[in-house]
Amino acid sequence: LGMRLDRPKLLAFGLIAGTLVGVLIRLASSDEVWLVVLLGISAALVGLAQQTLP
Amino acid sequence: VHAASQRNQAGSSWIAKAVVFALSATFAGVLAGWALGFAGSVLSFDARVAVASVLGIVAVAVGAMELGPRPPRVLQWDAETPQRWMNVGALRWASLNGSALGTGATSRIGFWLWYVIPIGAFLLGSPVWGALIYGIYGLVRGWSVWAFLLLPRRLGMGGDAFGLWLVTHGELSRVVVATQLVIVGLVVVIVVGM
Fold first, then answer.
1. Complex ipTM
2. Which of B110, B116, B148 lies nearest to residue A42, judging by beta carbons?
3. What are the backbone angles phi and psi of residue A2, rounded to the nearest 5°?
């Protein structure tokens, strides 16, 4: 979008996006969906963290 | 051998190799998750809940230990993907490497949180959920190769400097994924126990 992203902007975007996603999930969720979301986030985190392995 | 490997790696653009690698990793993750979810569906719901409640407690304990000064050694094949794959041609190498890293089990995994992916896919007992969870892992693992290819240029770093920068953030990664493991364990214990 041609916008320069610095840390405060990234944090703000992250918070807004996280809140929106959280609200959407909560609206449409059962326990199973919560678990799937949590496991999906975990999967993404591991995939990213593994890039820092020597 | 090195020259032969280089010959075998030549002939395809880095874009083609990166795309094949990323697609293979994603596909392998989806396939592994689907298979695990299908296998888990054979178990009764009560059995899966019982196993999950025990593993939830284990996850909290292991995650807490991983945050401590002496993290427990991760059970893993402590190895890279086989070097001989360098000799099978560039696109086949990309495909094999992507498939192996998209599932992760046969190479260095590094973090206990990785186990949440196959175990979670299995215990949910749904091929669709399994494919989704494991597919996310394969997708992130596969497509992050683009960060290696594009970010160093944008940041004005050399590839080696970028690799070193990543490795120096290993401790931060460990803290983040260990905390996530504790959270997953707690949520599983709460959800399963209620």
1. 0.90
2. B116
3. 75, 15
